[in-house]
Fold each of these.
Amino acid sequence: MPNEEGAELYLSDLSERDKPWDARRARAEQVQALYSGTEYDRYSTRILECSRVLEFALAAQDDGEMRFRLMGARFCRVRHCPVCQWRRTLMWVARALQGMPKIQEDYPKARWVFLTLTVKNVPLLELRTTVKDMNKAFDRLSRRKEWKPVLGWARSLEVTRSRDGEAHPHFHVLMMVRPSYFTREYVKQKDWRELWKSCLRVDYLPVVNVKTVKPKANADGSESGITAAIRETFKYAVKPEDLTADQVWLIELTDQMQNARSVNIGGVLRKYWKAHEPEDLVNADEDGGGEVSEDDPRLWFGWREYVKRYAKVN
Ligand SMILES: [Zn+2]
């Protein structure tokens, strides 16, 4: 892009890592518009003010590379705000990845399994009670003998929207298991299904997916299995595009999901990953970053509605 006199400098052109900001903030604008004038008008007001200005430091990282580090922003913390939901995800992922070296040191033999537990689609109006039933069912599951090899787990609730507007709630569960899970305590996919069915106390066989997380780093330098599984686990509660598909759906979803927990941590992982929702939405650097000094240059970017991008503020 030619940098003519007076032309704006955009964050997404200057920092590869910060490219997602524009799309998230643009989506937040849509959610804000959908809340406007409804019973959740107050959320609309809060989202309007969310992350309008971002303050970055340009600082050298541990690897010597200069990178943008977010130093400050005002977040609205509305549950379904696409910016805040994304930041929360990043915080969970950063927390989990930062905890990994210590976990691997304390449990060198542990292995990881990724489990997806679903129920059949339900009318959106039944989402709240369905999630309550799923929580109870998970509780039962965690007391079954098949659960014995599970040392710790992280569970997130995701709700997707079906084409006809029904809700599809499901759990993503990342489990840290004893090595014996893969020998004498092995649970086959088919048995996980039966087990989940029995815990749910339903008369149909729910879809359950189980996959082993590959422990080793990939030879091609791409992400290791555990890193990818951590990202998958903490992905998001509701797909950004589902949030803006239909106003009535969003309002009802907001109603139904009041007070439902998105993330739960159990077993020994509570010690490493903490169960509480992240409060700080600013410092989401996975590697912990590097030190930022007073002398590092600061840059401010403001949200430009007319181009849907963050531009440098002088
Ligand atoms: Zn927000």
Amino acid sequence: MSETTRSIAQLQELVLALPAPERDRIARIYHLVTTTGRLVAPPEMHGWIEKYFGSVAAVEEQRIVKVTNLITLEGALFNELRASRPMEARGNPEVEAEIAKAGDPFCHPETGTPADVFGRVKGKRCITASNIAKYDGFHGLVIFDEHNPLAFSEESVADALHTALAWARKAHNADNAARYFFFMWNGLWRAGASIIHGHAQMTLSRGIHYARVEALRRAALLYGVAHGTSYFDDLVAAHRSLGLATAYGTAQVLAHLTPVKEKEILLIGKRLDHDMAGALYRTLDALVHRLGVRSFNVAVYLRPIDAVQEDWSDFPALVRIVDRGDLTNRTSDIGAMELYASSVIASDPFRVIEALTAPAS
Ligand SMILES: [Zn+2]
């Protein structure tokens, strides 16, 4: 099978064609089911179906691939029909003008936002603020100097991460029991941002890390005990075997096999360093400028910022990036399936990795 025809619909065949050790490693992590959905379309619907799906045959038999991560119990359902649609989104001039319009409180953060009790951290291209209605004891913002959240640069992305880490050290100094750091960036309203002006958020929590992060730590620990190898190393290797991984320096870049939602990309590194920041910038740049993404979430998982009793020795720096869909679409991208069962995915990870590795245009 050539590189150009690889698709998520053929995942099971692609795995079967691998050498046994690689196949076994994938099978340790992933459970795969391929099934076919069938329907009967009345002749009156044929015209409409051809317009939206290309042919009646395409909808009469639809291949569905269910991928389950047996270690973390994350799951994704890929439908060939949805995945074969073009990924590039169209821009909307009215929406672009709304995003570019400055004049909000974040345009003058020192008078428009509260400060933390330990003051503000000033980066080169951003400044911190204290979140007015907090998720946790320490909950801050990194407010970009640049209003337009889509006008990020390699420098501004690295500066936001660096400034958030400096904020975490200040918060930890103010309260030594606060040590579990979480960084998030909600890009525009589809992703949960209430203010357009570019900003990321960070928290520093006490007692135990956030539930999803702690669940991942525990799952990876059990994997290490059961198989004598690193879960994170095997996760990278499994994606690499399938051609779903690339690297930026020491940062591993994966087109995730169980994406939480569309086009999810994982970055895995030893720590949140220069290479990880560079990989995050390149990923966002590819999503926005190659795939037309306008609204996204970024999350950073890190081990606690000081020593604790729990075993975090194998836990990497992990960054997750996901597309949240068209800014003009009134329908939410998540429903009961995503909240309570499994993610339903329309983007093919093989197309995502192509976009990430394409030469600069
Ligand atoms: Zn602004």
